[in-house]
Amino acid sequence: MDDILTSRYQEFYNNSELKIDPFLISKMGLLKKHTFLRLKDFFLYAIPTSLGFNTGQVLLAVSEREHALIESLKSQMQQLRIRFKSPLFGRELGLILKATIGKVQTPGATDNFILVDLKFHSLPDDFKQILIDLFLLSDRLKKEWQEHRSEDIRIPNSLLRQAQIDSSTQIIIPEKGRFRALFKSLGLYSSELYIAAALESKLPAPESEIKLEVKWEEGSFLINGVIKGATSKTHQENVRILKLGLEYSPVLTDCITPLADLFKKRKSGIEKKIAPTADDNVQEAEPIA
């Protein structure tokens, strides 16, 4: 990317920050075990939680002494040392980001973990390229998600592996806990799950919010969901079907969109036979009690 284009993108995204999650970590090629905040002669292991052209934030595990040191070094120039194996460059890349320390927060009940705001100065060009690539990816996925709103295409259980997603999942119900489930089908906006009949009594009312923990090839991610209507029975007495509406998820969009596009082409007759449809496969996806 030439300097003029880089400059234009930087101006466009100048005041934006990306929330860093396992999906973006994998896309940028961040080597998590090689990210450190250098404070004088101390090197503290750091996990980026957000990154932008001007500011960022890292999560640190610290002792009381280290916490006090960070507080004493506010507004002083430090270094965030970060290493990538980025597909943009095809090689490992170690970068030093000059930054001053801003607000320090304690996110939980313990002082062992703190969130540290950083203000960046004179970012390396390679880091700018990585940021631009991530911002463009984020914008593309949001656009693709919006473009598919008119069709709610769901991928059947038997084909989820092609989307690099595991067919098993966990439902997280507020104040109730986690419960195992199996995807009957999964799309960008909705899902059908096989659940144990015993779980029915623990489900909140329709339109209540829950979360799904979904496993994929890089780990796991959470999707916010809403219960849609009552459960329905299956041919197995102790198995029920639960329908959910799903919120936007960049990971899910990246995994599901290619298969959803193939199903769309098949439906329109552009490709006569590319894969079984969801209706062809739902029966083989049912679990054995």
Question: What features would you describe in this structure?
Answer:
It is a single chain. With 289 residues, this protein is of the alpha+beta class. It is globular and about 65 Å long. A hairpin with a 4-residue loop joins strand 5 (77-86) and strand 6. It folds into two domains: 3-139, predicted glycosyltransferase like domains (Thrombin, subunit H, Beta Barrel), CATH 2.40.10.220; 156-285, Thrombin, subunit H. Helices cover 25% and strands 40% of the residues. The longest helix has 23 residues, at 125-147. Strands 2-3-4-7-6-5 form a six-stranded antiparallel β-barrel. A six-stranded antiparallel barrel has the order 9-10-11-15-13-12.
Total count of strands: 15
Strand order of the largest sheet: 2-3-4-7-6-5
- The total number of structural domains is 2
Mean pLDDT: 88
Give the SSE string. HEHEEEHEEEHEEEEEEEEHH
Distance between the termini: 55 Å
Give the count of helical stretches. 6
Please tell me the CATH architecture of the largest domain by its name. Answer: Beta Barrel
Beta-strand content estimate: 35-45%
User: CATH superfamily of the largest domain, please?
Assistant: predicted glycosyltransferase like domains
Named CATH topology of the largest domain: Thrombin, subunit H
Q: What does the largest sheet look like?
A: 6 strands, antiparallel, barrel
Q: Choose one word for the global shape.
A: globular
